[in-house]
Amino acid sequence: MELPGNDFDGAWKEALERYLQPLLELCFSEVASAVDWSVPFSWQDKELQEIFRGDELGRQQVDKLVKVRLRNGSDEWILLHIEVQSQGDNRLPIRMYRYHHRLVDRYGSAVVSLAILADENRHWKPCTYTEESLGCRVTFEYPVCKLLEMEKDALEQSAIGETPNPGAIVLLACRHALESGKSPETRQHWKWELTRRLYDGGFVKDEIIELYRLIGWFIALPEEMELQFHRRIIAYEQEKKMPYVTFAERYGRKEGRKEGRQEGRLQTLREDILDILEARFGEVPGEVREKIETLSDEARLKSLHRRAALTSSLEDFRGER
Questions:
Q1: CA nearest 62: which of 122, 18, 8, 5?
Q2: What is the pLDDT of residues 224-276, one digit of tens each?
Q3: What is the C-alpha separation between 17 and 13, in angstroms, rounded?
Q4: Quick one: residue 286, left, alpha or beta (phi over 0 = left, psi -120 to 50 = alpha)?
Q5: 29-67: per-residue pLDDT in tens?
């Protein structure tokens, strides 16, 4: 059974934007403890794009720049440049060095460069850049979090309890995706274990919905297994007598219809797509609804079915159609 392609970059972007503090607490605890999280931080991604535009090293998909205030009593603001590397790249050290100094030159303030290595190679962990010529030597070191080196038991403990850390769910989802390889059965197993933990681990409704989507983004399954998976979630919700209906139920609630008739299957897919979009983003614009309701290509509808669950906004969904 063929697995769908992974979109780790998109998942990491959204995970950092939504769970910056929880992820830093797990990946870079010293940095997280130095930040005053009571003061709102601000993303500087547009400025980052301007600085990196036309770079010969090739700007990476997951670069985030955020302005935070320190808690040292000085009211000092600093910049955190975070790069997530999902594949090995020998240019990472020189890129971290150059981008660090470009940011310092541009803003004239302190910059902390951080790298999260979410790749499959356990032996790849670059954390230093050295440049030397005729006795002149520069060494640049930057903190690195190697996902495959993190204690899995510690992450699992962080994901449960009275105050579970949502960042632990994100890290576990990515790690299980890496370690599952091309086995859809193994992926399905870990996707179920993480999803069940959302319900049993003390997460509130909004976090369950968001983390459920991120888990699905990291641990993608073949279409038929995905539909089976969501039917299993519905049964679990009913068994647990959940006090609310998650979008997971709406995602697959019409699967009980008769599948023997082609039009019935198509209509089920159309309604499921609209249900997902409505549950996640509110009212669906008329032109989007109309185009979906007129589609009769089953393969296309199945593709949109998946995209509706993974896209970050209605605008992105429109562009993907």
A1: 8
A2: 888 888 778 878 877 876 655 454 545 444 444 444 456 667 888 888 898 88
A3: 6
A4: alpha
A5: 999 999 999 999 999 988 887 777 666 555 456 889 999
Instruction: Give the span between the Cα atoms of 94 and 60, in whole angstroms.
Output: 13
Q: Rounded to whole angstroms, how far apart are CA atoms 259 and 255?
A: 8
Q: Which positions ≥6 away from 248 have C-beta within 8 Å?
A: 209, 212, 230, 233, 234, 237
Burial of 308 (0-12, 13-18, 19+ CB in 10 A): buried
Phi-psi region of 73 (alpha: psi -120 to 50; beta: other; left: phi over 0): left
Neighbours of 264 (CB within 10 A): 13
| 22 vs 201, more confident | 22
**What's the rounded mean pLDDT across residues 173-197?**
90
Whether this prediction's pTM lies above 0.70 is answered by: yes
Query: Would you say 70 and 31 are in contact if contact means Cβ atoms under 8 Å apart?
Result: no
